[in-house]
Each structure stands twice: as structure tokens, then as C-alpha cells.
Amino acid sequence: MENLDELVDTLIFYVTTYGLNVVGAIAILIVGLIIAGWAARAVDRGLARSSRVDDTLRGFFSSFAKYFIIVFTVLAVLAQFGVQTASLIAVFGAAGLAIGLALQGTLSNLAAGVMLLLFRPFKIGDYIEAAGLSGTVKSITLFVTEMATPDNVQVVVPNGELWGASIHNYSFHDTRRVDLTLGIGYEANIADAKAAILDEVGKDARAHADPAPMVAVLGLGESSVDLVVRVWCAAGDYWSLKFDLTEALKNRLDREGISIPFPQRTVHMIGNVPGVASTPT
Questions:
Q1: Across all residues in the chain, what is the average pLDDT?
Q2: Which among 260, 262, 242 is positioned nearest to 250, based on CA atoms?
Q3: Does the first or last residue of the chain, that is N or C, have fewer Cβ atoms within 10 Å of its Cβ?
Q4: pTM of full prediction above 0.85
């Protein structure tokens, strides 16, 4: 019976001593979890109103807000039982610093991924050139970006490399300009060549009338007069128009009798070279 009385006394002691702390800890935990869930939904709804914020980024920030509040809730619960949270925070801070140093490359990619998803210098489906690589963007995550090269080879690039490099987005604008350089002989009439080129360009429906196509003398080469042809088109028609126009203009100049010269050299032999017959020039 004495053992039972001691057990009851011990139970009453712990209930009276820690009962309120337990109730308070449970209350803090419940309220903290409710606030964490509310904060995650609020962040998600707030970011959903912006068209510039990617779905991946919305999930990241909403989860971050939720677990940030949960961590402080757990610290508050431990404080209810007299645990020195200041020392725990110092331990967690030191551990976080050590982990950060060990994963600094990964964390830099994470930070770059957040910036890419936030500022969106390119999107899925764009053809870009960056960090010495070029291809069509297939996916963007918090750590890496996946691209496919023109010959359909998968390239996975860490986001840190993309964010730290100049990005050329060839799909950003709806239109692009096709530049072609053609050489004609010095004996050819430049005005006739320009008229023939503009006429041939005008036959292609992909070439935009505004801005109008133009032909100008780019320079006087060693064996040709170099003409530059500039034509605007839809971004999706760039390569097909460039290839087709190159062939069409070559054929048109042939029909007009306008030659496209190739580099030539005139060699003058001066004096007699042993073993080589001298030929007058």
C-alpha cells in the first residue's frame, strides 16, 4: 500500500508541476501547425496572382514558410519544458553553417534556380544560348535546367552556370532578321542585282513586308562586290527561310547572268627560279 501511495504522490507531483506545461505545449503545437498551414496557403495564393512566378517557385516558397513556422513552434514547445533554446539555436546555426559550406555549390544552384524562375529570362520551349551551350529548354527546376540540342541530345546544366552567364534567347521576340551575304562580280550591274534579289525575296510569303527587305553594298572584296540581304520573318521561320533564300537567290542570279565569283589569285613570276621555266605574264 505504501508503494501505491508513493506512486500516487509522484503522479500528483508531476501533474501539478508539469501539467500546465504539457497543456501549454500541446496548445502551442496545435496553434503553430494551424498557422503554418495558413501561411503556406497564403503564400501560395499570393504568388499565384503573379504571372511571373513559376509553379515550382510557388511550391518552394510556400513550403519554406510552412517549415519555418514549424521550426519556431517546436522551439517554443521545448521552451515550455525548460529546455534552453538559445543553445539549440546556436547548435542548429553551427550545423547549418557547416552544411552550407559543404553544399555551397548546390546552394548556389538553388539560389540561381530561384532567380531564374522568378525573373524568367527564358521559358520552356525557348531556344537559348548560354554558358557555351545552345538548345531548346525542356525543363527548369530549382537546381538544373534541361535543354535539347538541335540534334536532340539532352544537356543538363546547373542553374548557377546559366545565371552567371550572358543568355541569348532567340525565341523571346516574335520576329527575327535573316542576314545573307552575296558576292557579285565587279562587272555586274549592282542595281540589276539588287532588283533581282528583292523580287525573289518578295515571292516568299514568309518574308515580312514591314520592315521591308533591304539590299545594300556591304563592302568591296578582293574578287567580288559583297551585298548584304536583310529580311524580317517570324522567329519560327528563321532557319527554313534562311536555307531556302540562299538557294533561291543563287538560282535567280544564275538566271539573270550575274556571276557569283570565287576568290582568285594572279601569280607573277619575276626572274628565273632554278629548275622552273619562266613564263611571261
A1: 82
A2: 260
A3: N
A4: no
